[in-house]
Amino acid sequence: MKMFENYHNIHLYIEPLDDSKPDAHIRYEVSNLLMLLEDYLNLTTNQYIRVKDNRDKLKNYPQNSKALHRQMNIFFGDIHFMLISAEKAYNLSIRLLKIFGENKTAVDATKSQLFKIIKFIRNNLEHMDDKLTKEDGKYTEPWYSNTAHTFWFNRQWGSMDNDTIKLGDKSLTINEQTFEPLEKLYDIILSIITKRYVIPNKEIVDRIFSRHIKKWE
Asked: Is 119 inside any structural domain?
């Protein structure tokens, strides 16, 4: 998985030179959304690295030990935040695509299996505490524990077999290719930004800010 670090090198080409122009607000919005999108994509990448590293470490701990429980706690948190970051990246990508009039691509992203599965698992992890109330019919599912004390936690956050997270009838395999659809959306967005803002504005922006522009390294 790669890092996404184009914002700092191109944001001056996106943002308006004249705030009174009709498209000034949109250009600031695009710039801010791109910054956030890169942040959440990078968080997804960093969390994936942590999940992979921690997964490899789990086999080194004895079963039913305090050390294993602590490592599982870290592992669970990393998975949860990885899914949160990926869902945020999807939402930001869809928002940018709609701004650019790429409605079909935005709809396809919204309906994609990866987005749906990420959202489903993330939502269930986030509302584990709500499922403690058995009377709440909203959370009554056949794949939850039938009693309040039988493997309740395990059933709520699912299971992981090798690299595959399973929860209910949904599964998500975590590997280098998992988030490629998100990377492709980013490439589409960056291509539009380059054609719409960077290329047309590069000459004048470089001339005005020549002493201030420093390549992000």
From this structure: no
